[in-house]
Structure prediction request, 325 residues.
Amino acid sequence: MQPKKKAILISLCVSIALMLAKFVAYFLTGSNAILTDAAESIVNVLASAFAFYSIYLATLPKDENHPYGHGKVELFSAFVEGILIGLAGIIIIFKSTYDLIYPNEIKQLFDGAIIIGATGVINALVGYYLIKTGKKHNSITLEADGKHLLTDSVSSAGLVVGIILIQLTGFYWLDGVISIGLGLYIVFNGYKLIRKSVGGLMDESNIELVKDIVVILQNNRQDSWIDIHNLRAQQYGADLHIDCHVTLPYYFDLTAVHQEISNIDQLINVSGSHQTELFIHADPCLPACCNYCKMQNCGVRQEAFRAEIAWNMENVTKNQKHFNQ
Prediction:
């Protein structure tokens, strides 16, 4: 089984088991705060099930109808998971507010705390495993599911502390207050996940990836690569797409241009952390490029070399040659 499918299947099985354990804790205690945690576990199960299906789609090879692959479905999966998390948080806040006004009887809190604490530890371990696997295999779905489980483990830890405080102080109204606090925390994390997935669905350039690529190009630049501009990167699941413009000497023939572009392609795929598909547009140099062009023995140079323009996020991402900076 593929590592991504294995990881999400483990997450799904664990989520089902922990959901059942949390509902057992709720029936033992009658605590609204524990019911809050159990209700969020339903979201965990639904999200993991949808994530499993999205990973199955994302691993399908490119075809005639999907020339860029199926990786973008992982962004949609993360969006759905964020929506589910946010809805769970909102429902929890309303339910907790009602129970704060009309409290119900709470009992066997320490038993409930033990169960919730155990589920929190397991969620944390599985969450770290999913995030590690997601980063290794460039899967936003696994990372999103892992962060969701870490969020759940943090809320469980806060819940355990709250349960102990309720038992020690006898302030049972804390049950509703804790639930509202956890609901707000859950809504915030759902928003962050939605924001990230929407950015990907809107083809928002991956700034961190662009920074890495700029460093690789700057550290390995060749004299014939006069400048690189209009560089953008989008990640669709495990698939990374980069396009940019490269200024080359205008007297290069098609074979030489092809070789230079192939060299850049190979550099990115060997030095970078992602398997990348590059779309490179070759621009001819202009006389205004001469002052920062390092080509040796150039027979058409019209101005002496003065200084190299270091490539950075400011000039590489703009759609203009560097002499306009």
User: Anything to note?
Assistant: The chain has two domains: 3-201, 207-324.
